[in-house]
């Protein structure tokens, strides 16, 4: 059995990753999935979260939001609405987005879309965590 698979992560703007990987953790809609070479085929919807993968001795992290992943025994393709490496994340923007979401949720205003505010909060938290600036 091979010890790697081809990993491609694509957004509408660009191909973010195209490498051989030994493992990947994907934020699926119903929880995280761990993928190793030879995994059974599946398709899953992505949630907001962190993708971590190992390419050689290096572990890499990306903040992703929404999309789909196709898993085949020798290839994993992730089509994400957004995918950002730690260096691409605007930490100040993420902090401001987190503050706005928290203010909306704490306001008690019945016109606030709670689900949308929770998603914005989760996305901002994920971006800060991947950037290493959580807190």
Task: Describe the fold and architecture.
This protein has 135 residues and is of the alpha+beta class. Helix content is 25%, strand content 45%. The chain is elongated, with a radius of gyration of 16 Å. The mean pLDDT is 93. The longest helix is centred in the C-terminal third of the chain and has 18 residues, at 114-131. The chain has helices spanning 91-106, 114-131; strands spanning 5-10, 15-21, 23-28, 31-35, 42-46, 49-55, 58-72, 75-84. Strand 7 and strand 8 form a beta hairpin. Helix 1 runs antiparallel to helix 2 (114-131). It contains 2 helices and 8 strands. The termini are far apart. Strands 1, 2, 3, 4, 5, 6, 7 and 8 form an 8-stranded mixed sheet that branches. It has 2 domains: 5-86, F0F1 ATP synthase delta/epsilon subunit, N-terminal (ATP Synthase, domain 1, Sandwich), CATH 2.60.15; 90-131, Single alpha-helices involved in coiled-coils or other helix-helix interfaces (Up-down Bundle), CATH 1.20.5.
CATH class of the largest domain: Mainly Beta
The CATH topology of the largest domain is what?
A: ATP Synthase, domain 1
Tell me roughly what share of residues is in helical segments. 25-40%
The biggest sheet amounts to: 8 strands, mixed
Give the CA-CA distance, first to last residue: 42 Å
| Contiguous runs where pLDDT drops below 50 for at least 5 residues | none
Q: What distinguishing features does this structure have?
A:
single chain, 135 residues, Single alpha-helices involved in coiled-coils or other helix-helix interfaces, 2 helices
